[in-house]
Amino acid sequence: MMIKIVRNFARRIFSGVFKKKGEVKLGFYGSPNAGKTSLANRICQDWLGEDLGSVSKVPHETREIQIKEKVVIERNGRKIEFKLIDTPGIATRIDFEDFMKFGMKKAEAQDRAKEATQGIIDSIKWLDDMDAVVVLIDSTANPYSQVNITILGNLVARNIPVLVVANKIDLKKSDIKKIRGAFPDYEVVGISAKSGENIEEFYEELFKLVKKV
Amino acid sequence: MAKEKKKVIKNGREDLTIHFMPYSEIAHEDSVGRIKKILGIVLKNKIVILQGRLRSDEEAKLIENSMMLIGNVPGFAGIEIASLSGENENRSLFEGVRRNIAKILVGEQDAITVIGPASVVKDITKDPKKIELMLSRK
């Protein structure tokens, strides 16, 4: 543990010295179907006019790390260049039979399950490479999932600045107070990545987050 | 008349075993040892109730190792995990400092963690004060 802390510290110092000025590696983390790719797409559409990845109601649509470089966001005359890193949703269980409920054949479901497990392993490994992270939480779901707690705990331990985004506030079941109650130590911003609701506040908080990098 | 074949029926369900693990059982293990110990029990289709909780990096490693086993261990579909600790409770500054010192010295024992195989534990729902397990009917 101690070696890891020293190694991470050295990496952050050196990457800080040599990294291209202004480039911020921004990771999107969360459970499957929290809206990570939807938010990454929203940002890419706003600033590049193109999507980053495909979205689906079937869990684990994103099974590989997806990167979009040179995303320049401008706010109040200040420009910041981001490298957006969309990660596969982290889950503790993967059962191919769950995919068959969405109409997939057994072989297809098994392949998807295999890719999803590898995606989760990759997501965890990539935690070390982030400058800042946006943790997406579905505001219509119970926020006390161990996955959310584990992700946030790992980011704190690595001293990586984090912004909690409560997504899907356009839905009736959304309960942002519950999210804020579950994570009182974090800045929580409620948005709808799908409709774009409150996205300006998200950009505002994102710029505040970058100051901590 | 043909002799009727005798069948042993256990109400159609398998036995459920809960393994209570005091913190002392993992206190002197390194991270690899702790994860190995917990996964060893979970792979026997038992539910572990651990006194205390793993560190965040150990929890991530536990999830990572579970993912590696899916597809390689027949019937294994991962784990369900939930921890309850008094972290969100309102407490005085002194009490907070005292808890943090204790956490550094002896680990986080003032917590409880439930870890079970996904094939047995269908879902774990948690709120700040309780954990509920929904078990699969075998």
How are the SSEs ordered, and which strands pair?
The complex is a heterodimer of chains A (213) and B (138).
Chain A lengths: L1 H17 L4 E8 L5 H12 L18 E10 L2 E9 L9 H5 L5 H21 L5 E7 L7 H12 L4 E6 L8 H7 L5 E3 L8 H13 L2
Parallel strand pairs in A: 1-3, 1-4, 4-5, 5-6
Antiparallel strand pairs in A: 2-3
Chain B lengths: L16 E5 L2 H4 L3 H12 L3 E6 L4 H14 L9 E7 L7 H14 L4 E7 L3 E7 L2 E6 L3
Parallel strand pairs in B: 1-2
Antiparallel strand pairs in B: 2-4, 3-4, 5-6
Helix pairs in contact in B: 2-3
Number of strands of chain A: 6
Terminus-to-terminus distance of chain A: 22 Å
Q: List unreliable stretches of 5+ residues of chain A.
A: none
In CATH, the topology of chain B is named: Methyltransferase, Cobalt-precorrin-4 Transmethylase, Domain 2
Which radius of gyration of chain B do the C-alpha atoms yield?
19 Å
Structural class of chain A: alpha/beta
* CATH architecture title of chain B: 2-Layer Sandwich
The CATH class of chain A is Alpha Beta
Order of helices and strands of chain B: EHHEHEHEEE
Tell me the radius of gyration of chain A: 17 Å
**Assembly context of the chains:** heterodimer
- The percent range for strand residues of chain B is 25-35%
Q: H/E element string of chain A?
A: HEHEEHHEHEHEH
- Annotation field: number of helices of chain B: 4
Count of domain modules of chain A: 1
Total of DSSP H or I helical runs spanning 4+ residues of chain A: 7
Walk me through this protein's architecture.
The complex is a heterodimer of chains A (213) and B (138). Chain A is of the alpha/beta class and 213 residues long. Chain A has a single domain (20-211), classed as Rossmann fold (3-Layer(aba) Sandwich), CATH 3.40.50.300. Helix content of chain A is 41%, strand content 20%. Chain A is built from seven helices and six strands. Chain A has a six-stranded mixed sheet with strand order 2-3-1-4-5-6, sandwiched between helices. The radius of gyration of chain A is 17 Å and the shape is globular. The two termini of chain A are 22 Å apart. The relative contact order of chain A is 0.16. Chain B is an alpha+beta fold and 138 residues long. Chain B has a single domain (17-135), classed as Methyltransferase, Cobalt-precorrin-4 Transmethylase, Domain 2 (2-Layer Sandwich), CATH 3.30.950. Helix content of chain B is 32%, strand content 28%. Chain B has helices at 24-27, 31-42, 56-69, 93-106; strands at residues 17-21, 46-51, 79-85, 111-117, 121-127, 130-135. In chain B, the strands form two sheets. In chain B, strands 1-2-4-3 form a four-stranded mixed sheet. In chain B, strands 5-6 form a two-stranded antiparallel sheet. In chain B, strand 5 (121-127) and strand 6 (130-135) form a beta hairpin. In chain B, helix 2 (31-42) crosses helix 3 (56-69). Chain B starts with 16 loop residues before the first strand and ends with a strand. The relative contact order of chain B is 0.18. The model of chain B is unreliable at 1-9 (pLDDT under 50). The A-B interface holds A 1, 4, 90-95, 113-114, 117-118, 120-121, 124-125, 127, 142, 144-147, 149-150, 152-154, 156-157, 182, 184 and B 31, 55-57, 59-60, 63-64, 66-68, 70-71, 77-83, 88, 118, 124-128.
